[in-house]
């Protein structure tokens, strides 16, 4: 059984969020390890952010850039990060994804401004936020 920590080493992870009616919506994303947890960075006006605000329930699974999944599905609980989380996670993104990660962050800052993105932290469902 895969863990969130193990999935943090994957280049892409298939994140599934859930609509109010329970329907699943999935998308491949970049993901960074964050201790025993996962973290990702996304524009704040995306559908996944809206769905996470509604219900933090998510699943994650290793995948390729096209979203073709492999390995175990792991249940998680998503929450929004703080400014300190943002600094830590964006530094991790720069390290993990190199030049392409740096260029993506710069492009996003130009298009959306400094506050146009959010950090999402994913922990096991049985853990409280901040643990």
As for the number of domains, it is: 1
Give me the strand/helix succession.
HEEEEHEEHE
Record field, number of beta strands: 7
Structural class: alpha+beta
Largest sheet: 7 strands, antiparallel
Please state the second-level CATH architecture: Roll
Q: How would you name the CATH homologous superfamily?
A: Electron Transport, Fmn-binding Protein, Chain A
**Structural shape:** globular
The total count of helices amounts to 3
**Mean pLDDT, rounded to whole units?**
91
User: Remind me, CATH topology?
Assistant: Pnp Oxidase, Chain A
CATH hierarchy class name: Mainly Beta
Relative strand content:
25-35%
What does this protein structure show overall?
With about 130 residues, the protein is an alpha+beta fold. It has one domain: Pnp Oxidase, Chain A. Helices cover about 30% and strands about 35% of the residues. The protein has helices at about 5, 45-55, 85-110, and strands at about 10-20, 25-30, 30-35, 35-45, 55-65, 75-80, 115-125. It has a 7-stranded antiparallel β-sheet. About 25% of the residues are buried.
